[in-house]
Structure formats: C-alpha cells, structure tokens
C-alpha cells in the first residue's frame, strides 16, 4: 500500500491505496465521483478525461500515486452550486449529447481547448483538439458547436482573462 | 495489472540504485505507453520507479547550435515552446502531431525514445537531425541508440536524461497518421544542414526508424521533389499489417518524403 494525498475539486483527500490503482478507479470507486467514465482499455476514447494540475489527462492512463500532491478537477467540480459551468450549459443548449457517456470527458477536454486556444474558437481547431475524445452517438457536429459556444460564454465569466494564444 | 512495488525517488542516483537492486524494475515517465502495457498484463515489473519527482529532468534549452530537451519534458511543452518553434519549427510541429492533447500532456521525449516504437515520431527527428541521446552515464549518437524494433542501446538500469538536437538550416516533418491510433503509418523527417540532406523514415520499416540513403544522395545533388523520381523503398523491408501492406507503406513513405521536400523547397 502507498499513501496518497491529493486535492480533488478543491477538497484535500488522503488515502492508503494499492499503487496499481488508476486515477479513474480512485475517483470512481473510492471517492464515488462517477462522472468520469471508462469507455475503453486502450487509452483512446477520452471518456475519463480530468484535469491534473490544470491539464487534460486520461485518468485511465495515470496511476493515482502519480497524482501525489496534485490538484485534480473532475466534471463534478465545475458547477458553482446549482449553476452549471458555461461549458456544461453549452452542451445542453446545443444538444451536444445523446447518451451522455462521453460528455464529461468532452466537457473537460473542451475547457482545456479554451485554456489553450482562447475564447474565439474555430471549428478546425476544436475538431483537431478533440482527436482523443470519441463519441458513439452525436456525429460530433453539435459537440463542436457546444464547445465553440461554451468558449464564448466562458469569456463572459467574471474574471475571465483571455488564454494565451496557442 | 500485476502487482509491483512503487518508488518515487527524488534523486537520479536513488532511481539507479533501486533499479540495480531490483533487477526487475521499469522506469515510469509519462506512462502513456507503459500504463496501457501494464493494464494489458503485457509487462510485469517487480518494481516501478517513477521518474516524475526527480528535479532537472524536464526543461528546454535553446542555443544557436542546439535544442536540448530534458527527458521528462512533455510533448505538449515541446509543441508550445516559442524557442523551439523559432529554432527548429519542424520539431515543435512533430511534437504537436503525437497522439492527442491528453497524451501530449503526459507523454515525454525520454519515454518515446526509450520505447523506440517503430511508428513513433521522435525517433525520426533524432535520426534526421543527428541528435545525441544523453543518459546518466554517457552520450550516444541517435544512430547508435536506436537498434531495431522497440530496441535501444540502453542498459536495463540506464536513464535517458536529455536529447540534444543540432539546429539544422531547415527541416520539415510529414506524417500520415493511422486514423485510429494517430501513430505514423509513415512519417518522413527531412533536414538540410551544411551541404547535406538527411531523410529519416518512421512508421514503415520492419526494423524501426531508418535513414533513406538513396533519397539523401539524390536530394543532396538536387534539392527538389523531382529528385526522388524513380527512387523506391523495398516493399519487403516494410511493415505489413492489417493497416497496410509493405508496398503501400513503401509508397506512402516516399509520398511523405516528397511532401516534406516540397514544403522546404517552397521556402
Ligand atoms: C492514444 C495514444 C496515442 C499515441 N500516439 C502516438 C503518436 O502518434 N506518435 C508517437 O510517437 N507516440 C504516440 N503515443 C505514445 C506516446 O508518445 C508516449 O508518451 C511515448 O511513447 C512514451 O512516453 P511516456 O513518457 O509516456 O513513457 P512511459 O510510458 O512512461 O515509458 C515507456 C517506456 O520507456 C521507458 N522510459 C521512460 N522514460 C525513460 C527514461 N527517461 N530513461 C529510460 N527509460 C525510460 C519506460 O521504462 C518504458 O519502458 C501514443 C500513446 C497513446 C496512449
Ligand atoms: S477510458 Fe480513458 S481513454 Fe478510454
Ligand atoms: S453522447 Fe453517447 S457517446 Fe457521446
């Protein structure tokens, strides 16, 4: 067993874990944060995407112990009370989901796209940046629209600063 | 995943000592190759030595002569580095073509060269630019470092610390990615330096990354896509799998080389 202390959605967490535990298993099975999904065993689908120290990662391809001391943000940490994060809201607004299995990963990937490329996104940038997020239902069209719309809405958040142009 | 002991040393000496004591250890960098391998039970190391807490292994240093990148530097940081974009734009571009953003946020240069996947991107840049691979105990020219499919000159307990790429006069990388995995079906890195031209092909060769000497000679004589007319790689030496046969890969490698040359010739 290895001891682990990390911060998840702003809350410090400490645990003794088997070092084999994947970050996604720790989040889902130990912390019961089941918004991050496991859609493949080949690190390709992105349903498990979370932010680790501000960067999108596939939590199925990170050992929980590798996150020692880090800040983890999952889809559960986005809403402010009952108010959805603008990127979450945009997925509803633009019908960016059908079954919803890929959605938390898409939203976490979408927010990183904004962090990297700024609030004014074009379709090409979004499609390229979604390379690692697969959706079996939507055909992507509305997911791309949702991320472009979510980015515009994020610009109106209080304290929003333009991301470094990437 | 089979059970292993996990270690997170904060000094390279300690990592080396652990590896020697174990005799059955693996180093863990970004984990983007190793963790999927462990999940599929294709590897069963007794000890996993995480290089993530060793200071000084990540970073980028650019001089007029060379771009030196620490082994633990993530692909995303190479892709975004303004210094590398200025000195060797093709290298930053190559890093930005690896996998997808989440893979690039974790995967490292050291892990990529140590793994020497025949379809990986960095080995092509190393070979074409004549890079030096630095380890805890020596410095190896790329040519001596890559020794065939998933094989390198690394000893069991040897750690890659950095890779130093000489700055070329000009370079370009063109890759035809497998639409599912994003690994190269064929990739060509073409570099001009001094009087010569070097061409490295990844994704195609059965023995992993290689230099296409015929193309180098033709391009050194005349630097234009037409210089490649009539040259062909042998289909028998190419990877043949469910994604494409040898003839397809031989053709694709030539097309990628032509595109890289065209991009450079256009200035
Ligand atoms: C979905 C997906 C798509 C990908 N697409 C591409 C692609 O298009 N092109 C491409 O090139 N790669 C691709 N990769 C692989 C990716 O680039 C990996 O990051 C890289 O191959 C390995 O680097 P790592 O840091 O993750 O190493 P790890 O997985 O941690 O380690 C890989 C191996 O290298 C050894 N190792 C690691 N660091 C060192 C070191 N410093 N010294 C000695 N040994 C070391 C480890 O022991 C292990 O055997 C992809 C991966 C995934 C999951
Ligand atoms: S579950 Fe992580 S990439 Fe598919
Ligand atoms: S909405 Fe069903 S997988 Fe994307």
Automatic annotation (TrEMBL), chain A:
Gene Ontology terms, MF aspect: anaerobic carbon-monoxide dehydrogenase activity
Lineage top rank: taxon: Bacteria
The UniProt record lists the keyword Zinc: no
Coiled coil: none
Keywords: 2Fe-2S, Iron, Iron-sulfur, Metal-binding, Oxidoreductase
Its EC number(s): 1.2.7.4
The keyword Phosphoprotein belongs to this UniProt entry's keyword annotation: no
Entry-linked InterPro entries: 2Fe-2S-bd, 2Fe-2S-bd_dom_sf, 2Fe-2S_ferredoxin-like_sf, 2Fe-2S_ferredoxin-type, Beta-grasp_dom_sf, Diverse_Oxidoreductases
2Fe-2S ferredoxin-type domain: residues covered: 2-78
Gene3D superfamilies: 3.10.20.30, [2Fe-2S]-binding domain
PANTHER family: OXIDOREDUCTASE WITH IRON-SULFUR SUBUNIT
UniProt-recorded name of the protein: Carbon-monoxide dehydrogenase small subunit
Species the sequence originates in: Ancylobacter vacuolatus
UniProtKB/TrEMBL annotation, chain B:
Residue ranges occupied by any FAD-binding PCMH-type domain in the UniProt entry: 1-170
One protein family per Pfam: FAD_binding_5
An annotated Gene Ontology molecular function: anaerobic carbon-monoxide dehydrogenase activity
EC number: 1.2.7.4
Enzyme class, spelled out: oxidoreductase
SMART domains according to UniProt: CO_deh_flav_C
InterPro entries membership: CO_DH_flav_C, CO_DH_flav_C_dom_sf, Diverse_Substr_Oxidored, FAD-bd_PCMH, FAD-bd_PCMH-like_sf, FAD-bd_PCMH_sub1, FAD-bd_PCMH_sub2, Mopterin_DH_FAD-bd
SUPFAM superfamilies cross-referenced by the UniProt entry: CO dehydrogenase flavoprotein C-terminal domain-like (SSF55447), FAD-binding/transporter-associated domain-like (SSF56176)
Superkingdom of origin organism: Bacteria
Keywords per UniProt: FAD, Flavoprotein, Oxidoreductase
Stated name of the protein: Carbon-monoxide dehydrogenase medium subunit
Organism, scientific name: Ancylobacter vacuolatus
Organism phylogeny: Bacteria, Pseudomonadati, Pseudomonadota, Alphaproteobacteria, Hyphomicrobiales
């Amino acid at each position: 067993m290895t001891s682990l202390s990390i911060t998840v959605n702003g809350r410090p967490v400490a645990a003794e874990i088997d070092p084999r535990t994947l970050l996604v298993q720790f989040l889902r099975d130990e912390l019961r944060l089941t918004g991050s999904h496991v859609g493949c065993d080949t690190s390709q689908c992105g349903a498990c995407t979370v932010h680790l120290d501000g960067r999108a990662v596939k939590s199925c391809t990170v050992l929980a112990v590798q996150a020692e001391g880090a800040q983890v943000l999952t889809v559960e940490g986005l809403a402010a009370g009952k108010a959805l994060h603008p990127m979450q809201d945009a997925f509803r607004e633009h019908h960016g989901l059908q079954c919803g299995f890929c959605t938390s990963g898409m939203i976490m990937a979408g927010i990183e796209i904004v962090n990297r490329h700024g609030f004014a996104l074009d379709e090409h940038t979004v499609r390229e940046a979604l390379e690692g997020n697969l959706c079996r239902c939507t055909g992507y069209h509305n997911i791309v629209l949702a991320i472009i719309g979510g980015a515009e809405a994020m610009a109106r958040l209080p304290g929003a600063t333009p991301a470094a142009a990437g | 995943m089979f059970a292993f002991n996990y270690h997170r040393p904060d000094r390279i000496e300690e990592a080396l000592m652990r590896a020697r004591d174990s005799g059955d250890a693996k180093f863990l960098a970004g984990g983007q190759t190793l963790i999927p391998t462990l999940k599929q039970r294709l590897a069963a190391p007794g000890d996993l030595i995480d290089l993530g807490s060793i200071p000084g292994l990540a970073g980028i240093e650019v001089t007029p002569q060379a771009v030196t990148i620490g082994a633990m530097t993530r692909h995303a940081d190479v892709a975004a580095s303004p210094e590398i974009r200025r000195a060797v734009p093709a290298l930053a571009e190559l890093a930005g073509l690896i996998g997808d953003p989440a893979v690039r946020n974790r995967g490292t240069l050291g892990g990529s060269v140590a793994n020497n996947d025949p379809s990986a991107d960095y080995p092509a840049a190393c070979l074409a630019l004549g890079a030096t691979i630095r380890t805890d105990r020596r410095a190896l020219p790329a040519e001596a470092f890559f020794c065939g499919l998933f094989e390198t000159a690394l000893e069991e307990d040897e750690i890659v610390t950095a890779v130093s790429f000489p700055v070329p006069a000009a370079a370009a990388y063109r890759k035809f990615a497998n639409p599912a995995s994003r690994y190269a079906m064929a990739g060509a890195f073409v570099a001009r330096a001094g009087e010569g031209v070097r061409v490295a092909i990844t994704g195609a060769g059965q023995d992993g990354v290689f230099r296409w000497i015929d193309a180098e000679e033709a391009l050194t004589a005349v630097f234009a896509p037409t210089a490649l007319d009539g040259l062909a790689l042998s289909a028998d030496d190419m990877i043949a799998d469910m994604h494409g046969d040898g003839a397809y890969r031989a053709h694709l490698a030539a097309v990628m080389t032509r595109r890289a040359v065209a991009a450079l010739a256009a200035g």
